[in-house]
Amino acid sequence: MQRVNLSAVSEFVLVGLSDAPEIRLLLFVLFLLIYLATIAGNITLLIALSIDSHLHSPMYFFLGNLSLLDLLCPTITMPKMLGTLLLEHKEISFSGCLFQHFSLIAVVGTEIFLLAVMAYDRYVAVCHPLRYLSIMSTKLCAQLALGTWATGLLNSLLHTSLVFTLSFCGPNKIQQYYCDLPPVLALSCSSTHSRELVILVVAGVLGSSACMVTVVSYICILLEILARRSSGIWPKAFSTCGCHLAIVCLFYGTTIFTYVRPSFTYSLHWDRVVSMLYGMLTPLLNPIIYSLRNKEVKCALKRVINMKICNIKEDVNDLFFSSKNSTHL
């Protein structure tokens, strides 16, 4: 068996968005603001979920996991991209590219499975409300969350091992702003057909399974709503499920378009736009769509903000009085 040579390419060059020098500074400011807004929104949501006892339920437990994933996803790629735009430091080491690729696939995969778990949680809440707490017990929620993270990590380990054990001995310019699967595969000197097939099959089986759970859960929810025939239930159901399904469709659509297709269909500019949708905008929009449209979360956020304002006022007053007393002395 031929030995795979991993030392031929010691680093990659991330071309990405840095090939547009005339708007590079504008892009840096724009993406920095998006990144800071994403971090602020998800951290605020995590704080509210952790300290407000009204939100200690299975639904918000999974929402906290989603917010954590939405923190990790842009943090894996955007700092390097911002550095490339500002400092024009485009190089990334082979091991750094491997780690970035592994982390991103793990986060994306985990989020796909988590969305399916959240859909199942909503199914139990709507179709079996009286047994909701007994079915969605603390033990089951922990097992489901642990299962999604473990499956995402194992799936990423398989993908990364298939890609980065290939031979890279020629061009090293990645036509993306991070080490993504399709552009890295395109740089390999080895034949990638068999590995692409394995990646497509595994991603197809796992992705379609998670998608099937989500679709079936919402079909059951729809049938339950139709069976109840309660006035006023449609606007509430559309407000809750419509937003969730919009994000699910956006996430699944962009992820499948980016990963689950042969390499000869790749398009340089369109792939960048699509990857930005799930890599930047989806983590930014999730706290808004999942949380700010939820009355309980809104109240929790208001309580957290008011508590922080009160603490700041108390600190200012203590500082003022202590400085005043020291002046008198």
Summarize the structure.
The protein is mainly α and 329 residues long. The protein has helices at 24-51, 58-87, 94-127, 132-135, 138-164, 181-186, 193-228, 233-259, 268-292, 295-328, and strands at residues 11-14, 91-93, 173-174. The chain is built from ten helices and three strands.
Based on the model shown, name its key terms.
329 residues, mainly alpha, three-stranded mixed beta sheet, 10 helices, 76% helix, 3% strand, globular, disordered N terminus
Topology:
Blueprint: E1 11-14, H1 24-51, H2 58-87, E2 91-93, H3 94-127, H4 132-135, H5 138-164, E3 173-174, H6 181-186, H7 193-228, H8 233-259, H9 268-292, H10 295-328
Parallel strand pairs: 1-3
Antiparallel strand pairs: 1-2
Sequence of strands across the biggest β-sheet? 2-1-3
The percent range for strand residues is under 5%
Query: How would you state the average pLDDT, rounded?
Result: 79
Low-confidence stretches: 1-7
Estimated radius of gyration:
23 Å
Task: Tell me the structural class.
Answer: mainly alpha
Largest sheet: 3 strands, mixed
User: Helical stretch count?
Assistant: 10
Percent range for helical residues? over 70%
Number of E-state strands: 3
User: How would you name the oligomeric state of the polypeptide chains in this document?
Assistant: single chain
Q: CA-to-CA gap between the ends?
A: 85 Å
* Overall shape: globular
Question: What's the order of the H and E elements?
Answer: EHHEHHHEHHHHH
Structure overview:
With 329 residues, this protein is mainly alpha-helical. 76% of the residues lie in helices and 3% in strands. The protein is built from ten helices and three strands; from the N terminus they run βααβαααβααααα. Strands 2-1-3 form a three-stranded mixed β-sheet. Helix 3 runs antiparallel to helix 5 and helix 7 runs antiparallel to helix 8. The radius of gyration is 23 Å and the shape is globular. The N terminus is likely disordered.
